[in-house]
Amino acid sequence: MKKLLLLAVLAAFLVLPGCSKKKEEETKAPETAAPAETAAAPEGKEIRAAFVYVGPVGDGGWTFAHDMGRQVMAKLPYVKDVTFIESVPEGAESTRIITSLAQKGYNLIFTTSFGYMDPTIEVAAKFPDVVFMHCSGYKTAANVGTYFGRIEQARYLSGIVAGKMTKSNVLGYVAAFPIPEVIRGINAFTMGARSVNPKAVVKVVWTQTWFDPAKERDAAESLLDVKADVITMHQDTPAPLQAAEKRGAFAIGYNTDMASQIPGAWLTAPVWNWGPLYTQIAEAVHNGTWKSEQIWYGIEHNLVDLAPMSKLVPAEVQALVNEKKAEMQAGKFVLFAGPIKDNAGKVVVEAGKSMTDPEQLSMNFLVEGVQGTIPK
Fold it and tell me: Which segments constitute the ABC transporter substrate-binding protein PnrA-like domain (predicted)?
């Protein structure tokens, strides 16, 4: 294939925080003036990439983290253009949006929420020449791959922090939907906390939403009312953490480092670093080496990590966390290894055994120490 000259480079796309919903509007990263000399893109397929987001890019959390990764990928010389559509509801609306993007010639489409799984598979069957990558799901096809990270590793580390910092031994967890991804996080956090504080319990409130600041704040308030003095979450906004700060409790975030937003309560957070993975996928499509696979990277690939611990966390606790993190990076620590009991006292993983990836991806129990149930 002849070498293609790019006359412009894509600049990082800055979005002001906000909650407005854009279901149909496509927003493209602006172009800057062409430099004096432009380099030829390497031979291979030219990439036109599109991202489908479940929340607004200004959420400061899940969608914001993905968009930071998108901006990294957009700088690649063979990426012709990149677009995203934010606040796309899971379900029929997402099917329409994904179809529209494929019809408009985007040849690499990222769908970034669990509920986009079936719509992605449905649309991909109609566009065999388009590569689809679905985040956090488990269904694949010839032109559909999946990708996610073992964020539960960072959850475990944050649990160690919580277990050491609590005075009441009650930890509050604001959870979104009862899917395996969220359940794994609750369990890992609880196991981490109880590894250093066997008296710690984790109380869970389910919001049944990814992005609803008011509902998330109310959920955190209800946990604070029952003596939780550390609040963490699996949500897309900092609302639960802000509630914790207001009440004098500690806060452990998710998705991104929100330390500047919750300075009086912030401890740390499990965080995402999507840029290298988005670059890897784009390179594979460009080079013609892409294949359908299920990518599930851990802390050793730097896809997931723990945000820097704040000065509120004592040095000896930070040292303990960093020691366990080093074990994870070296492959010396297996998180879901038996014996593990559920919160009804039943042995779910026997001693000497560990959960396989498929078992983890379909996890549907809460471990000992979690006070709550999994709603339907």
Answer: 48-325
